[in-house]
Specification:
The complex is a heterodimer.
Chain A (H helix, E strand, L loop, with lengths): L2 H6 L9 H16 L5 E2 L13 H10 L5 E6 L6 H14 L2 E2 L8 E5 L12 E5 L13 H9 L4 H14 L10 E3 L3 E3 L9 H4 L5 E6 L4 E5 L5 E3 L26 E5 L6 E5 L2 H9 L19
Parallel strand pairs in A: 2-3, 2-4, 4-5, 5-8
Antiparallel strand pairs in A: 1-9, 6-7, 6-10, 8-9, 11-12
Helix pairs in contact in A: 2-3
Chain B lengths: L9 H17 L5 E2 L12 H10 L5 E4 L7 H8 L2 E2 L8 E5 L23 E5 L9 E4 L7 E3 L8 H10 L6 E6 L2 E5 L4 E5 L2
Parallel strand pairs in B: 2-3, 2-4, 4-5, 5-8
Antiparallel strand pairs in B: 1-9, 6-7, 6-10, 8-9
Helix pairs in contact in B: 1-2
The chains are: A alpha/beta, B alpha/beta.
The complex binds zinc ion.
Chain lengths: ~300, ~200
């Protein structure tokens, strides 16, 4: 047994004690009943730094059961240090089955992306959130932002976004682009690219957001209206890519720029690594890609 | 004066019960299959008792409708939660629709800055088939769906409409039957009877 596994021995299922889980579960139920509203909760210390998504980890720990299949992604990838650590944390503390296949997972914990594959009704997407308050950049005082939400007073937000248009000709925000949930609360979707915003709208999956340092939980129930803030003369436009993925040729996925050598070579590839791999396994090949044999879980 | 047994495997069973409640509230009006492993706690049927064990502790208080008063000793002993007589002070409330009048306005509605400070009402009903179907829309419902709950009071649609006008304040309902849970969060709207 590794040293890390040894460290977790003697802890509760999914690390958190039952008292803490109950408190988080109550907050989750309120969050679902009031879509987009930030429910305060008593965030606990987790055995990882705050930047590692302790809010998302606590939400996952509170809902996770022995029959769940967990996928963890960071910037779309299953194999970054952050994603691997969180996945191992739950393998060790809860003994749950994990996967990299989006369609197989019952719970997907994510940082900065929504998977490309359309999520289904039996799935829960858990977001790691650094700053839950969309009005924070306008008003640092929480008593004030709370009142603004209570009165649905979002005029200042629109003014700010419109100033962008006046200055740049378009809204400059490309990440964490604010949305209106169920025609009531303005919500921060966490630093996902605005490319992903349309996927939140009428998703079949329940979406839960956990902010550990800021001690907030919020939610978008399945099949809920989620609208990116915009203006009649400047409608919301998700990021578009002019070239396909270099490896799988996808035209409709979010691409990351990857440096290929030290001579300034670069290519654009899918940020959702599982999406890219499954497309290649199906025989799709991009300009710089080579055909691959199907990926199997056992081979990983 | 024996106390009703708690869960044999609390960690696993509380998780299973919570997920049923979470599913029910995420998909309003759709019955979520659920049967607890427990027996009754006095007048409180097994599934409602399981929900109490899953969500109550010393950090919250609960209210009991008159027909369920005898459940107090079980709930207080098993959860450490405190019973309050004022429904407006309770985070959770238990009511049996077959015996107790329902008054949604009597419960805690939340505050404008904290709409989450409201009562979640656990309403017991029997599993009898119900022919009346109410058309519902709202978050968690694709297009529209129908709510079918046995034993709703005659003025329920009016009460629910009034609850909706307080949004985002208001109470959330969990209808609990012997083999299912139906969630009705404050965000769901009723559009009359289905024909
Ligand atoms: Zn690709």
């Amino acid at each position: 047994m590794s040293a890390t596994a040894e460290n977790y021995r003697g802890y509760n299922f999914a690390y958190l004690d039952e008292q803490t889980k109950r408190m988080i579960r109550r907050a989750i139920l309120k969050a679902i009943a009031i879509p987009g509203y930030q429910v305060p909760f008593a965030s606990r210390e987790m055995p990882m730094p705050y930047g590692w998504g302790t809010g998302g980890v606590q939400v996952t720990a509170a809902i996770l059961g022995p029959d769940d299949i967990l996928k963890v992604i960071d910037q779309g990838a299953d194999d970054t240090t952050n994603a691997v650590s969180i996945r191992q944390f739950f393998e060790k503390t809860a003994g749950v089955q994990t996967t990299t296949e989006t369609g197989k997972a019952t719970i997907i914990q994510t940082r900065h992306r929504i998977p490309e594959a359309t999520l289904q009704d039996h799935q829960v997407l858990v977001y790691q959130v650094p700053i839950p308050e969309p009005l924070r950049f306008l008003e640092p005082r929480e008593t004030e932002t709370r009142t603004m939400h209570a009165l649905a007073e979002y005029g200042l937000m629109h003014v700010k976004l419109y100033e962008d248009i006046a200055q740049h000709g378009h809204i400059a925000k490309t990440y964490d682009y604010p949305v209106l949930v169920a025609e009531r609360y303005v919500m921060a979707p966490s630093p996902i690219p605005k490319f992903d915003n349309p996927k939140m709208h009428q998703s079949g999956a329940l979406q839960l957001f956990g902010a550990g340092r800021e001690k907030r939980i919020y939610a978008i129930p399945p099949h809920t209206e989620v609208v990116s803030l915009d203006f009649e003369d400047h409608p919301f436009e998700p990021t578009k890519f002019t070239e396909p993925c270099a490896l799988c040729g996808a035209l409709d996925s979010y691409l990351d720029e990857v440096i290929t050598d030290d001579k300034g070579g670069r290519m654009f590839v899918c940020s959702d690594t599982h999406h890219c791999e499954s497309r290649r396994a199906e025989g799709h090949v991009g300009a710089l890609g080579t055909p691959i044999t199907p990926v199997t879980e056992a081979a990983e | 004066m024996t106390i009703a047994q708690g869960f044999a495997e609390p960690v696993r069973e509380q998780q299973r019960t919570f997920r049923a409640v979470m599913d029910a509230l995420s998909r309003p009006t759709a019955p979520t299959p659920y049967s607890s492993s427990l027996g009754k706690a006095g007048p409180l049927q097994a599934n409602a008792y399981a929900i109490a064990l899953t969500l109550l502790d010393f950090e919250v208080s609960y209210h009991l409708a008159p027909s369920l008063a005898e459940a107090e000793r079980h709930l207080t002993f098993q959860t450490g939660s405190r019973r309050v007589n004022d429904a407006g002070q309770a985070q959770f409330a238990f009511i049996d629709l077959r015996h107790d009048p329902l008054d949604l306005a009597a419960y805690a509605q939340g505050e404008p800055d904290y709409p989450d400070r409201s009562t979640t009402v656990v309403a017991l009903c029997d599993g009898a088939p119900e022919s009346k179907k109410l058309v519902c829309r709202g978050p968690g419902i694709a297009a529209s769906s129908t709510l079918s709950v046995p034993g709703l009071p005659a003025d329920f649609v009016d009460q629910w409409q009034a609850n909706g006008t307080r949004a985002p304040l208001g109470i959330d309902l969990l209808f609990v039957m012997p083999e299912a849970i139906i969630g009705l969060p404050r965000s769901t709207r009723i559009f009359g009877e289905a024909r």
